[in-house]
Amino acid sequence: MFDENRLRVFAAIAREGSVTAAAAALHYAQPSVSHHLARLEAEAGVPLVQRAGRGIRLTEAGRLLADRVEEILGRIDSARTELAAHAGLSAGRVRLAAFPSALATVVPTVAAAFGVAHPDIELALTEAEPPEALAALRRGEVDVAFTFHHGDGPPGDREGHTVTSILHEPVYIVSRAGASWPGPRTDLDTYRGQRWIAGCERCRTHLLSACGKHGFTPEIAFETDDYVAAQALVAAGLGVTTLPGLALRAHRHPGVRIDRLPDDHRFVDAVAYGAPPLAAPVDAFLRVLEDTAVDNVPWP
């Protein structure tokens, strides 16, 4: 069994790159950090670090442990918070990570409803794309992560998590208002040979896949995750793009035209760590989320 304090010391060493820097970050004496490291290596049965000049380098075993230690410590901290709430020592809290277009649309509606239903539970919000949100969830830094994926599958490993489906949002082709095209506006093949504005890696992968089904590879001229900037580029005649419904619900540039792509959707989920029964504040949040019926809002 590993001692929690030694794991926290090792996490600091892995983060800071030296025993001296870890001691400063933890406000420990350097000999104390060295002692904890030596005891942890004895518990592990293998060396975890090796000297590298004035600093240290993680061994292969050390890297393996470092990859897990933040998650382990995060789950310990999360468990303490949940037990305190369950025992009535605190009202509880829910920390939510969500991607930008969800923060601008779905989250305010749910947060308002949750505040009315559970005024004693604190709701904290942070912005994060799905892979980062799931990583924070595993580390215990957040309690719920809003994620999205296209038909090509969800992001990351969600085994051992509770997944609540929020909505299926349509995807649109976004072109300059007033522009004329040689074919149907809802057919990606119409935009063959045009310059494209691409977003995040997951959205770009989906765009490449969708265009590939029509026999062409899009020429990506601009890259931005900002749906406001993407629409401004389109309105200026610099290319075309695809955007999901939440992005267009959050912001619609007057200089663009949108046309819904048939049979193309993005799936939005809420992911919590572990299997039911979940911590009472998290379970309460997910119940409010299901009751707000956010999918009933008309799409653009």
What does this structure look like?
The chain is an alpha/beta fold and 300 residues long. Helix content is 42%, strand content 24%. The protein contains 11 helices and 10 strands. It has helices at residues 4-16, 19-26, 30-44, 60-86, 100-103, 106-117, 130-138, 201-212, 227-235, 245-250, 280-291; strands at residues 49-52, 55-58, 93-98, 122-127, 144-149, 161-176, 195-198, 219-223, 241-244, 256-273. The strands form 3 sheets. It has a 6-stranded mixed β-sheet with strand order 4-3-5-10-6-9. It has a two-stranded antiparallel sheet with strand order 1-2. Strands 7-8 form a two-stranded parallel sheet. A hairpin with a 2-residue loop joins strand 1 and strand 2. Helix 1 (4-16) crosses helix 3, helix 2 (19-26) crosses helix 3 (30-44) and helix 6 (106-117) crosses helix 11. It starts with a helix and ends in a 9-residue tail after the last helix.
Order of helices and strands: HHHEEHEHHEHEEEHEHEHEH
Q: Describe the largest sheet.
A: 6 strands, mixed
Structural class per helix/strand content? alpha/beta
- What is the straight-line distance between the termini? 55 Å
List the helices and strands and how they pair.
Layout: H1 4-16, H2 19-26, H3 30-44, E1 49-52, E2 55-58, H4 60-86, E3 93-98, H5 100-103, H6 106-117, E4 122-127, H7 130-138, E5 144-149, E6 161-176, E7 195-198, H8 201-212, E8 219-223, H9 227-235, E9 241-244, H10 245-250, E10 256-273, H11 280-291
Parallel strand pairs: 3-4, 3-5, 7-8
Antiparallel strand pairs: 1-2, 5-10, 6-9, 6-10
Helix pairs in contact: 1-2, 1-3, 1-4, 2-3, 6-11
